[in-house]
Amino acid sequence: MEIERKFTVKKLPANLEQYPHYEIEQAYLNIDPVIRIRRQDDDYYLTYKGRGMMAREESNLPLNRIAYYHLRDKADGNIISKTRYLIPIEHPGFKEGYPVPPDDYTLTLELDIFHPPLDPLIIAEVEFGSREAAVAFQPPEWLDEDVTYRQEYHNSYLASTRRKL
After folding, report:
1. Would you say residue 146 lies in a domain?
2. What is the DSSP code string of 33-52?
3. End-to-end Cα separation, the chain, in angstroms
4. Number of structural domains in the chain
5. Three-class SS of residue 140?
6. 39 in a structural domain
7. What is the pTM of this model?
8. Among residues 132, 135, 136, 114, which one has the least CA distance to residue 124?
9. How far apart are CA 121 and CA 84, in angstroms?
């Protein structure tokens, strides 16, 4: 089960290059259900995603390079490319009433900086272990609008349009 929230970004963190990052390319073979292929640096995956916005079933299967490019030729719409930075959120904030996590608790924020034709779009995603944690999460100040429930910020939608946000 994938449980995540998505945000737009007010301001990029300082020293962005200090964080681990990947070059990602992904394409969609179907959007209902979502069937996606992804190249993450030199790793390749086929992903199935069920319905949902914040929480949905997700299954990943490994692909090899040849299978990835064979399927890529069959993709619909835009092929999305982006750089993904993995930024730790140490001592993340949660709404009052949510159990206080241990002192060493850290979440990982995935910051996606999209390449043409979707630039200058930047989206941040945070994954959670439960729906309760996702709802209670208080994002850092440098994040902006919560767009979790806005279809136009989901990659499957972005692959099907040339519209910029």
Report:
1. yes
2. TEEEEEEETTEEEEEEE-S-
3. 28
4. 1
5. coil
6. yes
7. 0.93
8. 114
9. 12
